[in-house]
Amino acid sequence: MPSENEMFYSVIQHGLDFWNASFFCGSAAVLRRAHLDLIGGIAGETITEDAETAMALHGQHGLNSVYYGKPMIAGLQPETFSGFIVQRTRWTQGMVQILILKNPWKQPKLTIPQRLAYTSSVFFWFFPFARIVFYIAPSLYLLFGLRIVDAYFSMDLLAYTLPHVLGAMMLSNILYGRTRWPLISELYETIQSMHALPSIVATIRHPHAPSFAVTPKGERLDEDFISQLALPFYAIFLFSFVCVIAGVIRLILIPGDLGVIALTMTLAAINMIFSMAAIGIMLEKAQKRSAYRVPAESLDATAEWHSGNTVVSLRFLDVSHGGARFTATQPLPRGTLGAIRATIPAMDNTVADLPSSVVRVRRMTNGQWEIGVRFAPQTIEERRAIVALVYGDSDLHAANQRARQRRIGLAEGFAFLLRLAVTHAAENFQFLTRLAWQKIVSLITPKWQRILQRLFAG
């Protein structure tokens, strides 16, 4: 599916740019030095120095920004959930600081549309309050009998609530469905809310207190493990499950409250699905590959394998700064040393020889061979050519972006979320079961271990 940032960069920044309110996001930006000197350099009172700097340039001097929406850089993202939360918590705290310390409605040179745009960008980060309310609200009736809504199932819910909800979701899907699939925003908010909410409250109480926390990047995971931040999501799942059971009991005891029971049970069931998806995310998978592979089938570059007198035509499948994967009409012996002769589109189609070694050979069903190579550059020029090949072609990255930016319907979106929740939560619970079993086995004597092994083997 489209990555999380694509909605911001492909949709929201274009909208902000229409009102001259697109802002600096820390990378992929060019700022005029003379303009930075006007405000004393990159701002630093908040921990989101990029957005603070942009608002100072807009708000204190009435300067203009322009957003150019084309992929032109590649960067690192967090590889673990804990790294993701460190990054998002910093963004949350910084935007709350901007609201309190740099109120956009007190900036003298901002236009009304710019003030609204910055206010919207800041207030988005208060979503944990609403998300937590959504999790608590069904329990107020199902567990405590407090009627959070006075509705008849057939008349009010079906005639008013359901059309409104479906209409809102359909409109969202029309506006930005290519970059954010249905219900996925709610999942993103769920996994962030539990850890972001305390940070928001702390920042409101002490707006100068937050310090800059560097996002862990470039991590390699040698084995699967459960994130140390997983506990709140197990608690949400259990809480939602109890609410659903309470709803079944209320339906039996108080059938006259069908409308409110149906509504609150539906909300609790949806909360349970989101919590299951979050639990699935908490299982961190081993990630031994140190470099991300970029799909390269659309790469406009010819390639040949050269080793002694052997020349084999190759077709790119994917590429990273560590190696590449090709298809070829004939196999290459594993361990063979040679060079990939490739055209580099980002270097004006310069032809470069990239020293490589064959590390994988596999026959494909169509009769061709899949070849995996590891790059072994010896000079800075060869390294530059590899970087240009992998990261330098904006058309390649734009093509890959377009390939995953497709719109799906509401039913398909719900099915995707449900499949995500069930399959990944099951993996998580299976992993926990294995850990528990290993712990039990480690606590018993070798004699009983052998007996249990024979028993289960039988």
Poorly predicted regions: none
Would you tell me the structural class of the helices and strands? alpha+beta
Q: How far is the first residue's CA from the last residue's CA?
A: 44 Å
The number of E-state strands comes to 9
Rg, please? 27 Å
Q: What features would you describe in this structure?
A:
One of its GO terms (cellular component) is plasma membrane. This protein has helices at residues 5-18, 33-38, 49-61, 81-101, 112-123, 127-142, 153-176, 184-205, 231-253, 258-281, 380-391, 394-404, 410-443, 446-457; strands at 225-226, 283-284, 294-295, 303-307, 310-319, 323-328, 337-344, 350-363, 369-375. It has 458 residues and is an alpha+beta fold. The protein folds into 3 domains: 5-127, Alpha-Beta Complex (Spore Coat Polysaccharide Biosynthesis Protein SpsA, Chain A), CATH 3.90.550.10; 131-284, no CATH class; 294-402, predicted glycosyltransferase like domains (Thrombin, subunit H, Beta Barrel). The strands form 2 sheets. A 6-stranded antiparallel β-barrel has the order 4-5-6-9-8-7. α4 (81-101) packs across α5 (112-123) and α6 runs parallel beside α9 (231-253). The protein is globular and about 85 Å long. The relative contact order is 0.10.
Entry keywords:
single chain, 458 residues, Spore Coat Polysaccharide Biosynthesis Protein SpsA, Chain A, Thrombin, subunit H, two-stranded antiparallel ribbon, 9 strands
Ordered list of secondary-structure elements with their pairings:
Blueprint: H1 5-18, H2 33-38, H3 49-61, H4 81-101, H5 112-123, H6 127-142, H7 153-176, H8 184-205, E1 225-226, H9 231-253, H10 258-281, E2 283-284, E3 294-295, E4 303-307, E5 310-319, E6 323-328, E7 337-344, E8 350-363, E9 369-375, H11 380-391, H12 394-404, H13 410-443, H14 446-457
Helix pairs in contact: 4-5, 4-8, 6-8, 6-9, 6-10, 7-10, 8-10, 9-10, 10-13
